[in-house]
Amino acid sequence: MNSLFTKKKKNIPLEQTPKLATFQQLAELGDTLVLICNEHFEVTYMNSLATSLFKFNSSDKPSIYQYIKDIDKLIRRASTNPVKEAIVIPFGWTSKEYYLTLQSFENQALIVLKDLEVINQLKQDVNNIKITAEGTIKAKSMFLANMSHELRTPLNAIIGMSELLTDTSLEPSQKDLINNINQSGNILYDLINTILDFSKLEANQMGLEAIPININQLMSELHTLFAHQASVKKIDLYFETEDHIPHIIGDPTRLRQILVNIIGNAIKFTHIGSVKVQVKMKSFVQKNTTLEFTVEDTGIGFSSDVKEKIFMPFAQVDESITRQYGGTGLGLPISKSLVDLHGGTMDVTSAIGKGAKFIITIPFTLAPTTSLDSFIKQTVPNTVTAKILVAEDNQTNQKLLTMQLKNLNYDVSVVENGQQAVEEYFENDYDVIIMDCQMPIMDGFCATLIIRQQEELFDRHVPIIALTASALKEDKEKCIESGMDDFITKPVKIETLNKTIQHWLAQSTVPKE
Amino acid sequence: MEENIKLFIQDMGIDSPEDIKNLYFDYLQETSVIIEQLASNFSTLTCSEAEKLVHNLKGVSANLYVQGVYQAALQLDDYLKGHLGESIMDANSCLLLKNLVNTYEKESKEINSYFESNLNSKIG
Nearest CA to CA, how far is B8 from chain A (Å)? Predict the structure, then answer.
């Protein structure tokens, strides 16, 4: 029997060691049963819970076999590693399941028993919390999708209608009023986009595109965007791009968003001096590179103790800044979250009155080439492999679209009128619907209206992209008013097609099942 | 027409010569039927019926970069949209239809010539 236990160093029972008090305190914690048996398989110790349950009396030294059968086999196994398994302990006519942990040492065995019913209940509670949390996330995602659609649709109408009005004959005073409406609509549109982006990031529902980006072109566009603003404030604006920055694979919309927020802030808080924007390659390994974007200004700056605060949502340095400069306080937090989403880092150094310097580093994969031919054949897959439904009555157009979409690795189904499109929507899940406007039996507008009405039943919003041969404003307005999310004008170029689909796949906030 | 087909190849992401040829031949087969319907039945079609046919022709011509037919179809389509409740038979609509048919005949020959010289095949 003695050989079952690990070799002892000294023949001192645990209960007589100086560590007894500590051990007993630990043994009383929680709701586990703690037992010790000696080399003779006699129980020499039970904690209070076990004592109460088993009516233990230490002077009796009951046999451990009373409680745990095959204890010798368990102790033999415990000579190498602790034993952990479920066992059944009899209580008169009944029995109870426990989770046993047994470790042998110094001619003794330490046995810890946990009520399996309690463990199973905990597992069930955790599972329930997980289900509730998933439900909350799904509800939040649906809210985002619905709010996005509900807010943007009427706002699109306001902006679109005011733009149409500017093309009509108006008095100068009327033109001013319309321009104000248009500007306010655009400001509100940007604000809604900012808030919805923030909500999406908070709910971990922001996706990223993966398409080629020309960094030089992006920097040039940003320079053009901010040149007038800097000129009005009489501050210098410099853009420096290192030579040989390669084309990379990324999300141009989100990358632009990060830089627009940072550069916009730099110009806003600078009244004299300059804003300098630099981009360089920080590292280059095989087909990957890390780009470093630096935005440095000579503006009002801030103290180091508020450095963390500026990345917190809705916070600015202090209330006087909010009153003087305005802003939602979301730009920097969104930029930070987007940088994190890219797997990058953002750091800032500043001092009051001495400007600020933001350094953003983001890892990217290199784009193979910039030619369209390579773009089609590149091995970098789309971010999402998606199911696309095409509703188009013309057979040649059907074949063309099918070829294009299959070349882009999408799963394509084709129908030839709006009625079939609605039927397909009911029967199958699609990630995007590409809908021709004019079709026999039921046109695209009618089909879209029906699909939108039924969306509540199916609990998801499917992006619908209109195909139109018309570039007229009223035709585009009709598409939006019927509930379509976007439109592509024929000829449907493959770059436009892919970019539009990728945009709406990334916009979709409904988790895939 | 050769320049347009080259633009199509460049922009539309279809790089298989066989697929490109088949698309253009499908276009010619499909649109020849539309042109025939318009030309033969113009006096009996309503503006709305004619507009649907012309709109179809316009869209597929745009997609296949058959620019002349697209432009001619666009002009007739715009005219018909403005006269949907009226009789189709007037001087302007006849003129626009004649222009469309002539342009279609010219460009379909050019498409056949292109594929004859480049890919050694022609629609019968």
Answer: 9
